[in-house]
Design brief:
9 helices
Length: 392
């Protein structure tokens, strides 16, 4: 018969097939290893950048807006370290004995100021449609990596737990990003806006000098974070919305600040575009970063595997292509659901407590060392309007 195999040839091919079948598990295992290695290497690549992002290092940041003016004090200003001692509201010495350098105790009115700032920020953000959440302070190392952080790098800012897959979070952005990990979200539910109070822990590797003194750069602090999940078409407008919300908060606090479009050299791996806000800190004699807002596009969502299902499109005859019917009573084939796409993620700081305390103490100090509490915070601080030196 035409095409009939010679028995010997057939036997040879059968044996070869068995050999290939026996080798398949090893080949599949090797493929899994290569895919894992490829994924690991791919995670090291940074995001693309927005066409308007300035090129260069931090000095090349583009100033987008300045809000308020510098106050003319008419007396020699103190920095927040001097004010903290005079008012007896910050204790670095006791914290150094208990925990080490770059830790602190807030006391009396400063402790109330922290709570006031947090509650004010949370209430403001929740009033704009953000869902308030509390989050874990410990997260898996794998989730940190998927959000764009490198917990095992030489210059890492992450505290890792020995003999454990867990790390302390440096920002609530990470646990908020993990909420929807490995999920598919209907487009109708987007954007999803969340906000969380969280403790932030950072090693601050390499930080030193006068620019890092006092409360400005510490190992642990409290922060209110905003996190958004949206479609690609929504993300640029939402970055502006986040920045405007930050601007509203800091304007209500009476701060003098500027908004910067940060250059490529200052962007973290996940950020497509980052807008920083710096407040004038007269005691330190310079601007200091108090907030940032970042559009990470699909950098984090690809790693966290967060997708959305686009809406079904309307058919040409006006009927929903998913309802299985057309005009005239003819039965139409049920359309396949549209393929899923990766969401975009954004994050922004509503309130980073220590630096806002620096800005408030230094900007609202009086000649006798007392500090006026911004009016917007007084209802959150039991009506307290002035922090006075302990001697008074």
């Amino acid at each position: 018969m035409k095409g009939k195999l010679d028995p010997e040839r057939r036997k040879e091919l059968v044996e070869k097939g068995k050999e290939l079948k026996d080798r398949m598990p090893l080949i599949e295992q090797r493929m899994e290893q290569l895919e894992w290695q490829l994924q690991r290497e791919g995670q090291k690549l940074p995001n693309a950048t927005h066409p308007n992002v300035p090129l260069g290092e931090e000095a090349e940041a583009a100033e987008l807006k300045v809000v308020g003016t510098r106050r003319d004090f008419g007396f020699e200003v103190r920095d927040h370290l001097q004010l903290g001692q005079l008012l007896d509201v910050i204790d670095f010495d006791a914290a150094a004995e208990v925990s080490g350098s770059k830790f602190y105790y807030l006391k009396r009115a400063a402790a109330l100021l922290e709570m006031g700032l947090l509650n004010y920020a949370l209430q403001t953000v929740a009033g704009r449609g953000f869902v308030p959440m509390t989050t874990p302070d410990l997260v898996r190392e794998s989730v940190l990596e998927k959000c764009g952080f490198q917990p095992r790098a030489d210059n890492t800012q992450v505290y890792s737990i020995r003999d454990s897959p867990l790390c302390l979070t440096g920002t609530a952005e990470v646990p908020l990003g993990g909420v929807y990990m490995d999920r598919i979200i209907p487009e109708e539910q987007l954007p999803i806006k969340m906000t969380a109070f969280g403790h932030c822990f950072r090693t601050e590797a390499g930080a030193a000098g006068a620019a890092s003194k006092g409360l400005y750069r510490v190992h642990q602090f409290s922060k209110v974070e905003m996190f958004v999940i949206c479609t690609p078409a929504q993300s640029e407008a939402l970055l502006q919305e986040l920045c405007e919300l930050e601007e509203e908060i800091f304007t209500e606090l009476g701060l003098h600040f500027k908004i910067l479009d940060m250059p490529t050299g200052d962007l973290g791996a996940p950020a497509y575009r980052k807008l920083d806000i710096e407040a004038w800190m007269p005691g330190m004699g310079r601007w200091g970063e108090i907030s940032s807002a970042s559009n990470c596009t699909d950098y984090q969502s690809r790693r966290l595997n967060i997708r959305y299902r686009p809406r079904q499109q309307q058919g040409e005859d006006g009927a929903d292509s998913s309802n299985g019917s057309q005009k005239g009573g003819k039965k139409a084939k049920k359309a396949k659901p549209p393929p899923t796409e990766f969401v975009h993620t954004l994050n922004a700081t509503a309130c980073a407590v220590p630096r806002l305390i620096v800005a408030i103490l230094e900007n609202f100090q009086q000649e006798d060392g007392s500090v006026i509490i911004p009016e917007i915070l007084r209802p959150y601080m039991g009506g307290l309007d002035v922090i006075r030196p302990i001697s008074q």
